[in-house]
Amino acid sequence: MQPELESNQPEGPPAPISTAENAGPRNLVRRMYDWVLSWADSRYGVVALAILAFAESSFFPIPPDVLLIGLAVGAPRRSFRFALVCSAASVAGGVLGYGIGHFVWMQTQDFFFSVVPGFTPAVFERVQTLFSRYDFWIVFAAGFTPIPYKVFTISAGVFSISFPMFMVASLVGRSARFFLVSGLIYLFGPAIRRFIDRYFNLLAVLFFILLAGGFALVKMCSH
Known about the structure:
Elements lengths: L24 H14 L6 H12 L8 H10 L4 H25 L1 H11 L5 H14 L1 H9 L4 H10 L4 H26 L4 H29 L2
Helix pairs in contact: 2-4, 3-4, 3-9, 4-8, 4-9, 6-8, 7-8, 7-9, 9-10
C-alpha cells in the first residue's frame, strides 16, 4: 500500500516567492512554478490546487497541472479526487473570466494586455476569428491543450459567445485534461511523472487533432 502524502505534511504553507534575486521575467516564472509545486508538500495542498485552478482560468500564468501532478504522485489513490477539485475550480474560474470579458473588459483590458503572459491585442483579434469559425471546438481545445485557456474565457465574454455552449465546452475540455493526468498517475504511479512533465502537452495537442479530424471525417462521410 502506498503511503498518503498528507499524513506527514508540514503545518504551515511554503515560503513566499523571493524576487530580490533572479527577478527577470523568465526566472520569475520559474520561481513561481517551483513555489506552486511546493504546495504539494503542504497540508493546504488541495485548497491551493483549487485556488490555483480558479486563478489560472483568468490571469495566473502557471497551469494547475503542476500542483495536480505533485499531489497525485504523493497520494495516487486520491488522484481522481484531486482532478475533480481541479476541474470544478478551473471551470468556475472560467466563469469569472467570461464575466470579466462580458461586463468589465473596457476597464480591465490594459491590465491583461500589459501583465498577463500570452494576452496581447494580436492574439485577442485572432481569437475573435477562431470563435466565429469553431465556437465549441476552440473552447474545448483551449481547455484541453496548452492553448492559454484564460485568453479564451475572457474573449468568450467579450464576444458574447453562447454561455451554455461555453460552459459545456469548458467542462468537457478541462475535465478531460485533468482526469487524464490523474488517471496516468493512478495507473502508473510516480514513474510516469517525468513523462507527463516532458510530453503531456504534445500528446494533448496530437489527441485533439485526431479527435477533431475524426469528427470532420464523420461529417464529410455523412454528406
